[in-house]
Amino acid sequence: MHQFGQKNVLMLVAVLAAVAAGGCSKGPQGGADAGKAPPAEVGVVTLQTATVGLSTELAGRTVPYAIAEIRPQVGGIIQQRAFVEGGDVKAGQTLYQIDPATYQNTYDSAKAALARSEATLVASRLKAERYKDLVAIKAVSQQDFDDAQAAFKQAEASVASDKAALETARINLAYTHVAAPISGRISKSSVTQGALVTANQATALATVQQLDPIYVDVTQSSAELMRLKRDLASGALKHAGPAQAKVRLLLEDGTAYPLEGKLAFTDVTVDATTGSVTLRAVFPNPNHDLLPGMFVRAGLLTGAREQSILVPQQAVTRNTKGEAVVMVVAGEGQFAPRVVHTLQTVGDKWLVDKGVKAGDQVIVEGLQRLRPGVVIKPVPVGAASAPAASAPAAGR
Question: Are 193 and 228 contained in the same domain?
């Protein structure tokens, strides 16, 4: 009886072990089916062709529209400085007053000499006219008549000479008022009252710069300029019409200058040291926000490229060779890398001319989910859901 009970217990244990083993063998199969990962949603953009206006950004500096160094044209003592340093002056405004005493005296003397010459001229002319009548009736000799005519001509020459001397004296007297030749902003003064200055001295008294409008000089490599000309000649780029001459400006701190400028000219000489060509644009500057010597970046429209393809910048990565790569939808639930050739940025996109074509679906969102063997589900950009949270640990 005891042996029979022990035997039954052993059979019961064997049955329970078999049931447990069967449950374990079914568990993994059912878990694998239930834990199969769903397709990974990725945001895609379908590429389209469009006509794109291309621009180039070049570094440059601001240059005064006009600049004049103030130098005296006569010598003397500075009596007065008639401007505020750093202020605005108008063309013709008196900046310095040089002591005019000696120049006023020279002018008065020249004026008196001219009056004396004019009086002599009147007497000589009357005498020559009388001798002309007298020589006709043989009342005076021919020699006397010739002498009277010569004296008249000399008197005329003296008047002309004295007029020129008077004009010179007047000009020198006027030069004692040192005036601004152009309107603009004036620099600090290099002299004060009481200083002795000389005509056409090497040191400028001050400098006036016209700031409205103002020039912006930028440089472009000659190689880039030749490439643009070839693209325009071949038809790869189209002229953008009147807009091509418009220029936008970025200031040194990265802010955009609110007013638009125009391309004035392109230099005809290549700098031998830098291999670049200078381009000059002119900008309105009513508030004098732009000052000479500021570093700026100018955006110039170079032309329009037809049938262009733009790819979002966030879709472009680099492979180990440094090549630009995008991921495209390659079939039902599949993706594949494509090496592309980028030309330049246009806003937040890359201009691409090789590697992709219109109609391709480029993956923009969810690139971190792409792994070998992953099945994808392409959806429009912005509709892709966030990655699912990790499943609880299997050991639990």
Answer: no
